[in-house]
Amino acid sequence: MTERVRCLIIGSGPAGYTAAIYTGRANLNPVLYEGLQPGGQLTITTEVENFPGYPEGIGGTELMDDLRKQAERFGVDIRTGIATKADLSAAPYKITIDNEQVIEADTVIISTGATAKYLGLEDEQKYAGMGVSACATCDGFFYRKKVVAVVGGGDTACEEAIYLAGLASKVYLIVRKPYLRASQIMQDRVMNNPKIEVLFEHNTVGLFGENGVEGAHVVKRMGEADEKRYDIAIDGFFLAIGHKPNSDIFKEWIDTDEVGYIITEGASPRTKVPGVFAAGDVADPHYRQAITAAASGCKAAIEAERYLSEHNL
Length: 313
Description:
By secondary structure, the protein is α/β, with parallel strands linked by helices. Helix content is 24%, strand content 28%. The protein has helices at 14-25, 60-73, 122-126, 136-139, 155-165, 184-191, 290-310, and strands at residues 2-10, 31-33, 47-48, 58-59, 77-79, 83-87, 93-97, 101-110, 114-116, 132-133, 147-151, 170-174, 196-199, 202-208, 215-221, 227-233, 236-239, 243-245, 276-278.
């Protein structure tokens, strides 16, 4: 069964919902599919304090509920479903939902987000929102004058460690290899920061705590077949080993970087396919904030409206 729509939005984080609000107000009759994680990554964040307009802060799920209600107010058709296949070879573009329903769309806004990479420990899920985070900028504020650990050895991990060192009393940087992969300037900043202790050749094998993270079980490689196991006391555990953009089904048709982030034209949300736009974390390897995602959703919606108008669709 095939359905034709003027504007299809794929994803329901801040970018998708903002695009929905703008396209709904413009009478484009948008259809939005929520995707794998309705509400996006903010739904696994307990408290959001840096989104404008909420002076006392707001729960991540509550914030996304507010955005959803605002989109619904403007007549957006919000549906449950996952985009499983894309054909962007010619307009109208064909997106398959849940391997069965085909949507033909005059414009497509891709706002499928990016998924933080985790170590795969059961404790990461156990303490989600209770000391485990994949965003220092989002959650670092809650660890002022506390002890935290950051996992990773690249530029992102170093940036997160330095950011957290401005808030926390101590930061452990847990690095699997015997060296940092980060750029030299970032390495220098980390090594020269008295609040940061780098634990080279360490792996985290577990977390512990009663009502949240109180420490981590770590293993240090001592040689070919020797290792030392011990615990470190921490209040927060930050993952900084990268994100995977949810762009796989679009890669045949649009350009992505080596990681998978969608490449757009300059500061615009336009992809190389006319009428197809990318917004939010799926096209943002640098900022990954709710407010920047929302802004890009706004831009994508305005571009979609202009495209439809110019092509009399």
